Amino acid sequence: SHRPLFTNRKSIQGTVTLLENLHIILEKTPQEYEREVLSMLYMSFENSTVQVRTAAFVAVAHVTNYLEDDAIRNVVLPKLLDAFENNSANARVLMDVVPCILCRLEKQKIIDCILPLLCKVKLQEPEIVVRVVNIYRLMLTDKKYGLSVNWMATHAMPSLLPQTVNPKLNLEQFILLLEVLQDMLNNIERNQRNKLTLDNLSLPSPDKSRPLRHQYSTDNVHVPAFNIPNLRIEQRKTSSAEDMARKNSFGSGSLSTASAENMVRKSSMAAMFGGWFNSPSANDSNFLRVANTFTSRRLSDNTLMTPKIRIAPSCASSPGGTPGTGGGGGLPIRRHSSTGPQERRGSNINLSPPT
């Protein structure tokens, strides 16, 4: 036969003593009686006395291994959240319960219930600060606890950073706080560095796209030679005064006739005035006459393109006169000073002596 245990009336201090030593009682209790012993624990959460409720949470931290998962999720966790919300138990004791039941909760339950609870705790007393820091340090050891990088950056670190200048912390507590903060920062750095590296690999950077732009640049496109069928391109060459005269003559027959007549006229003049050319004074007079003939020549004519000028020794006509009016052959080949360098024509186009 079974009979209820711990059903007799007890004082507050007697109940607190039993709860604080419940783990020792369970070690002495046979397994078939464990359920009856734990029932006293569950009833203590409903006690109106703060000491009894606080002792019940102390018992949970000691006998977690005896509790079933359903009891932790459906009884202990709701009572824990309610005690934090209503401040109906000692905060230091409540914070001791969190790491004990943390590994028995689902990840989503931790994210929804435990993480917000850690941010609501007042971190003024060094004992509370140390307990919260230890919970974060435990959660940093495994991703199953749901402590994400985003939560570290937006909630955990902002709540812990002001405590770095808390004058109540001793050196050991301060070092513990700094180590956890540094561990969080390292996790943030590692996660963001990897993320940004993957983003840079997926998106082409300017340095990586430069060879592609250079490859398809118009400077590197080899276009075949421009070719139009049945099109003939001739290069234009600069023509001399004699070539222009030859092209503008009336015909090959008239040009050859004029040349022959000029040669005959030169021979007859040379025979007639042979003695005169031999005297020094005659040579000087002829030189002056020729020089006076070309008084209007430009200096550029001597430097740009020297024309070939044929001078008739016995020519007495004016430089600008025509063979028909001056009685002589004139200047067979001559450029007029008003003719530009782009258009060079011989002055004997229509100056052939009459036949």
Automatic annotation (TrEMBL):
Which residue ranges does the record annotate as region Disordered?
A: 312-355
Q: Where is the composition biased (Gly residues)?
A: 321-331
- This chain's source organism reads Temnothorax curvispinosus
- Signal peptide (from-to): none
So where does this one cross the membrane?
A: none
Q: What is this protein called?
A: SCY1-like protein 2
